[in-house]
Amino acid sequence: MKAYPNLPFSHNSLKVFETVARLLSFTQAAQELNVTQSAVSRQIKSLELEINAALIIRKHRSIELTEKGMALFQVLRNNYLELQTLLEKWTQPEKKRLVIKSAISFATRILIPRVRELNERYPDYEIVIIPLIEGDWDLSAEQSDLAIINTRQPELYRGHPKATFLRDEYMAPIYTPSDEHSEKSIKQVLEMPRLHATDDHLDWRTWLNQEEDLAIKPSRDTSFISLDLAISASLAGHGATVTDLLLVLPELERGFLRTPRNAPVRSSPWQYFAYLPQKSDIASDLLVWLQSLFEQELQRLEVLAEKHQWKLA
Q1: Do the Cβ atoms of 313 and 264 come closer than 8 Å?
Q2: What's the superkingdom here (predicted)?
Q3: Residue 303 C-alpha from the chain's centroid
Q4: Using one digit for the tens of pLDDT, what is the confidence trace for 118-139?
Q5: Dihedral, CA of residue 76, residue 77, residue 79 and residue 81, to nearest 10
């Protein structure tokens, strides 16, 4: 038994009918199909006989679709549109992908604000950003074009042929001011609830250990196991966190976040490295872009440090 026993033998007749029904003209249909008008008329007549249904009402200067003709046209139009969309996808060249992996905080605060810049820089590529939890991950089978690693074990990457040092972190406490004129001293910030990016409170401990006289007991501690979440909580006014100031430059410049005047800005055990699994022109260019970006951001941080009298270590 045939799979579709009621379909006409010639599918070409269905295409001819769809053209006539869409244009409501034998003449225009013939021109679009590049055949004679009589050939179009014969195809329609043959289709009507085969399916035993009148599809078109022929008038003196125009044509109309019958009720069955309209129903058939709607089905054909919908299916031809779907088929056209599918075939268009097949004919379009597959867009190349530029895959970047990084810690969530870096993806959220550095890459996402620059998606437009990345798209303009690499117009022939689909930008794919894959966020990961801060720290080290297995690079033995890494498939990204470039991985941005935030690590507290820099010895794993220093000197590695596929790894390039990007930058240190510049750590200091941040908080959200209650209004544009309010400013807290270091002592007042240290009395606020402390927000931590790791459960071992490493960032706060590292920053405080170099200034024993600043070791004031906070009102409470909250750990998020994510630097981006700790920053977000600080932005929401839930307390102070020690963070890499380069990650919050826009908020510091606009006054949405503050670091106390005269605060020491420390380096941390964490460092950034770029890992290129496979050498390629696009990955090398992306690395150059990142290096230039960090140079510009460090200059912006130095301007802020001078303005607020922060002590850059």
Answers
A1: yes
A2: Bacteria
A3: 30
A4: 999 999 899 999 988 766 677 7
A5: 150
SS3 283: helix
pTM of the model as a whole: 0.68
Structure tokens at 200: 């071992």
* φ/ψ (deg, to 5) at 312: -70, 125
pLDDT in tens, 251-281: 999 999 999 999 999 888 889 999 999 888 9
Which residues, other chains included, contact 218 with Cβ-Cβ below 8 Å and sequence gap of 6+? 190, 191, 192, 193, 194, 239
CA distance 195 to 234: 7
Query: Looking up tokens 């909580």, which residue turns up?
Result: 233
Percent pLDDT > 90 in the chain is 57
Q: What is the DSSP string of 151-184?
A: ES-GGGTTT-TTEEEEEE--EEEEB--SSTT---
Tell me, rounded to whole angstroms, the distance of Cα 21 from its chain centroid.
44
What tokens appear for 163 in the block? 């790894």
Contact 257, 235 (CB under 8 A): yes
On whether the CB atoms of residues 268 and 206 are closer than 8 A, the answer is yes
- Calpha distance 274→211 (Å, rounded): 32
